[in-house]
Amino acid sequence: MKPTLFVLAAGMGSRYGGLKQLDGLGPNGETIMDYSIYDAIKAGFGKIVFVIRPSFEKDFKAVVIDKFKNLVDTAVVFQEITNVPEGSTYNPEREKPWGTNHAVLMGKGVINEPFAVINADDFYGQESFAILAEFLRKVEGKQNEYCMVGYRVGNTLSESGAVSRGVCVVDEHQLLQNVVERTHIEEKGGTIIYIDEKGEEVSLAPKTPVSMNMWGFTPDYFDYSFDFFKEFLKENGQKLKSEFYIPLAVNNLIVQGKVTCEVLDTPSKWFGVTYAEDRPQVVLKINELVRKGIYPEKLYK
Fold it and tell me: How far is Cα 229 from Cα 246, in angstroms, rounded to an integer?
């Protein structure tokens, strides 16, 4: 059975100023998602599942899914604040969604095979999808063997300024031990540095793995996440801005010794649109990839 790609597309992109998942950046109006799906199909993924908000279902299907619905199986699921385990309570004034791992939980009813999780608005690169697909094919029929694609920090820096990244702590077998959030990462004088808790500059090796939210799971992850979400809501359900993140759930399982998560090295260069000012550079980078023949000028005919 081919692995499934699960695309997190429920975020509204408030900092960017609109639905950045639907912004046409390629030569023929292609979105970043279009390139991810093209790469995923090429790598051997057999189904694409999107999690979105019901409010933009019509636009999403017209702009995104209609392009390739005849090329690969697709499904759409919805992330809503009200979708919580029976008996759970939360602050009725809450407006913010529950976070990335709550979004992943929405796929429980439609995904029964090893699957990958990506952000809709991040450009991950062809090598990363190939590496991830290979891992997921190997774990078919298994349990508790997960992975994360670890990007070399030097391949994730922004031309617009400093960034924050989840730096991966791994053991000698490249198994994830923890993800440590580091802020203000940038290249300075030919060296990559971040600012530590004391406000001091600390250097990072260019190949240090960081998380860009590209994960691989076996289906047992849904049950683990559901149980953990119930516990999460008991402690955090009344908070207006608490979020149930993927790294939080994965780290919890690692600490308990229930799963392993291999960090897969990729040579791909990541880029994305966080702020509106990032858009011109992303357009240039995509056009350069098309010029080099890595992508056809028109992805879907």
Answer: 11
